[in-house]
Amino acid sequence: MSTSQPQRLARRTLFLASGTGLLGAALTACGDDAGPAENGEPADLDAALEEGGELTYWTWTPSGQAQVDAFMAAHPNVTVELVNAGTGTDQYTALQNAVAAGSGAPDVAQIEYYALQQFALSEALVDLTQYGFADFEADYTASTWSAVNLNGGVYGLPQDSGPLVMAYNQAVFDEFGIAVPATWEEYITAAEALHTADADRYLTNDAGDAGYAQPLIWQADGRPYEVDGENVTIDLQDEGTRRWADAWNRMLEPGLLAPIPTWSDDWWQALSNGTIASLITGAWIPGILQGSVPDGAGHWRIAPVPSYDGSPATSENGGSAQSVLQQSKNPALAAAFLRWLNHSEDSVGVFLDSGGFPATTADLESEEFLGAAPEYFGGQQINQVLVEAAGNVEPGFQYLPFQVYANSIFPDTVGTAYVDRSDLNTGLQAWQEQLVTYGNSQGFKVN
Amino acid sequence: MRTINPKVHRRPHSITHPRKSIALTLIMILFLAYALVPLLWLVINANKTQTELFTVSGLAPGGSFALFDNIVATFTYRDGIFGRWLGNTLLYVVAGAGGATFLATLAGYGLAKYAMPGRRAYFAVVLGAIAVPGTALAVPTFLLFSRLGLTDTPWAIIIPSLISPFGLYLIWVYTLESVPKELLEAARIDGASEMRIFFTIAIRLLAPGIVTVALFAIVATWNNYFLPLIMLRDPDWYPLTVGLNQWSAQASGVGAEPIYHLVLAGSVITIVPIIAVFILLQRFWQSGLSTGSVKG
After folding, report:
1. Which of A90, A104, A268 sits opposite B249 (nearest CB)?
2. For chain A, N or C: smaller number of CB within 10 Å?
């Protein structure tokens, strides 16, 4: 087995990436690398579709099965088995174990943008430029394309995007005479006014969540991570990060943020009964509110995210790409499926019908999409706000090549500041300290 | 001035008539509540619709009677995968816990009744193995199985479940106590083979011990979570524990689709068989547990 420098780095990356580090470390000794498929060409895709075959596709996207069914109807020679191997981190653990073990990975998998760098760097994913995927750049929003365009390659096609916006409960705002805040200054004032008027109500919730803090830091112009190969810089006290932390402290310390973890059953309840009056969230929120918070019908509205300086700058919160795995026995067929999945009207149409927020500009800018005025949102043309936000995502934010691990220790560090309602900057410093130590122990050159 | 109540002297407290302690009773009631309130919560909430779960809080009843609807939905959701998980769990319990009980009985009896070199060393190894929690072995087991190409197959769950050092130890001790040497000698004189002695005589005497071991193994396999979590990727092989967790996790992230009503109904369905097993086998359980507690 060769031990060239990049490969060694890749192996070490496996180690750090798996939640149970032990797995990767011991397994790298026996994991046979699948032959890197780097000599394909665009014509292979149609040929592969013609020839047919079997694929395994890991996803937790609700419309996944409907999309797969539509694909198989259009391409009867291909059989795609959809496997729901878990949501988010659960799936990454399984995927990382399969990558480390050298077998068991699917052909195509859903990976959130924040985790994509980690899998790309560990050489788990196929670079799709060989199949001509670089030509698709113009078809996707700039921010989602830059999320899959890593280290000079294309490591996936964007499924959806989540430009940061504000969803708010108009009924609660009206009841307490709150105007829709356009700046964070106004937002903080409104948070205080609402909680003072009714101690049971909060303008928003945040119990400490790395997947939420980072888009907020991004939106405040923070760029805490810089990744260049194995050289990594972490500065969780840069100007933008501090800007966010200082603003957030003003809500956290006086107890203006509901200590309800997002996605918990309490959170769903609080959205239903108006305890939480607004969310700073991704553009995918309308589908979720409509689907799972029926009591909010007619009450919710969408607005741009509050700004620090009056500019419409926003960031990406969540969203996934689908990628082809190196272990795939038939990468051309896998890439052909992926091209259909995230780059065809048929498939994106199914995804749209399920309430998703796509990443393809043609769908985002279609008149039908922009003109939609769902009653749930009081007839507001919400997509106009959402699509505008998609165009205002600030570029240049990078995630760490061990972001899944980083997010997993957020609760132990920044999370304690949330619990004590103390200075977030102290928590961020503690987080940074642990990340630097960890990154260095994994073979990166950090700071 | 004090008068002594003569009644107290006439009825002294003894082992059979212990003094009643208010403090201890209160503590017992607390423990009872601690054990039963979550169960009560589960049953009440499994009876709510998804909307009621978000609007009616905690132990308050939801108003509608949705338990049966929820159960039906649980079994039909996502092409009825819950039924598959139930079947998987039963398979793991029958093959894993059944096999563990059988092997523990064979080995425990053999070690107790046949002299062989290294028996003491074996005893020490078994005792040591009891002290190692299964969770600690899950990762090494994963590495082994991944080399053997057995991960993501039912064998990855069944084979590790076959080993029960505690069961072996229990049968060993139980055999020493309840299978008299004289009986075996008499059988041998009558010409019975060792196999026949084991299957027709010993196994009957060992029944309470076997049931105890089986109960332990069934509970452990039924609740097994960490091992299948790391061994299995394909939901078609999930047991109920991992499957329900996946359903619960579905309430988060960009494509969030909370189905708590199904998670709760599924949980109720999951605990019913284990409660039934306990109630049915309770008396064996008690007699088996006290084995070896009086004389060692």
Report:
1. A90
2. N
Map residue A162 onto helix, strand or coil. Answer: coil
CATH topology for A164-315+376-446?
D-Maltodextrin-Binding Protein; domain 2 (3.40.190)
The Cα B238–Cα B88 span in angstroms is 7
User: What CATH number was assigned to the domain covering residues A5-161+319-364?
Assistant: 3.40.190.10
The model's confidence at residue B230, banded by pLDDT at 50, 70 and 90, is: confident
pLDDT tens-place string over residues A75-112: 999 999 999 998 888 899 889 988 888 888 999 999 99
Structure tokens at B140: 């090494």
Q: Which amino acid is at A437?
A: T
Least confident of A190-194, A341-345, B6-10: B6-10
Query: How many residues in total does chain B contain?
Result: 296
Smallest CA–CA distance, residue B55 to chain A, in Å, is 6
> b/e per residue, A390-428, with b = 16+ CB within 10 A?
bebbbeebbbbbbbbbbbebbbebbbebbeebeebbebb
The residue of chain B nearest to residue A31, with distances taken between CA atoms, is B147
Neighbours of B225 (CB within 10 A): 14
A295 closest CB neighbour out of B55, B152, B252? B55
Contact B54 A265 (CB under 8 A): yes
Average pLDDT over residues A128-135: 95
Encode pLDDT of B161-205 as tens digits.
998 999 999 999 999 988 898 899 999 999 999 999 999 999 989
Compute how many other C-beta atoms are within 10 angstroms of the C-beta atom of residue A166: 23
Query: What is the reported pTM?
Result: 0.83
Q: pLDDT for B68-89, tens place per residue?
A: 999 999 999 988 999 999 999 9
Identify all chain A residues contacting B264, using CB atoms and an 8 Å cutoff. none
A387 inside 8 A of chain B by CB = no
- Ordered by start, the domain boundaries in chain B are 21-65, 80-289
A164-315+376-446 matches A5-161+319-364 in CATH topology: yes
Task: Assign domain B80-289 to its CATH architecture.
Answer: Orthogonal Bundle (1.10)
Among B residues 127-166, those touching chain A with beta carbons less than 8 Å apart = 139, 142-143, 146-147, 149, 151-152
- Ordered by start, the domain boundaries in chain A are 5-161+319-364, 164-315+376-446
Q: Which residues of B touch A86 (CB under 8 A)?
A: 246, 249
